[in-house]
Design brief:
two-stranded antiparallel sheet, 43% helix, elongated
């Protein structure tokens, strides 16, 4: 299976990158980088069914994690259970490394912009 390529992925739109950046900034997204490798097929449940043709789950996860996409991520579509405190996703998205890195850069820029905003003065109480 090493020579076989996965189907092509569409690059994320600017709106999708902005949405992912906001989710990254607020901690509402789980990715292949934030979930332990041994739990990926349990947290991102459909991965378990995509492993066919690979020697094992780790080979499949490594292929997608290291070669195709930096981030397999989920925000919604969870079931009412968890694995070691991580939600279980019934759907997820795969992002190209370049798109994921753009989202990380935008999330950092959002944080920097928020940190630079002045805090409004306290309103004086009227007598």
């Amino acid at each position: 299976m090493a020579d076989e390529q996965p189907p092509p992925l569409a690059h994320m739109t600017d709106a999708e990158i902005r949405e992912l950046a906001n989710h990254l900034r607020t901690g509402r997204v789980y990715t292949t980088q934030t979930v332990p490798k041994n739990l990926l097929t349990l947290v991102f449940l459909p991965l378990m069914f995509m492993v066919r043709g690979f020697e094992d789950q780790e080979a499949f996860v490594d292929y997608y994690r290291d070669k195709v996409a930096y981030g397999i991520y989920g925000v919604h579509h969870t079931i009412d259970r968890s694995v070691n405190g991580y939600p279980i996703f019934t759907e997820f998205k795969i992002a190209y490394i370049a798109d994921y890195n753009r989202a990380i850069q935008l999330a950092q820029a959002m944080e920097d912009a928020l940190a630079a905003l002045p805090v409004p003065p306290t309103a004086e109480a009227s007598p």
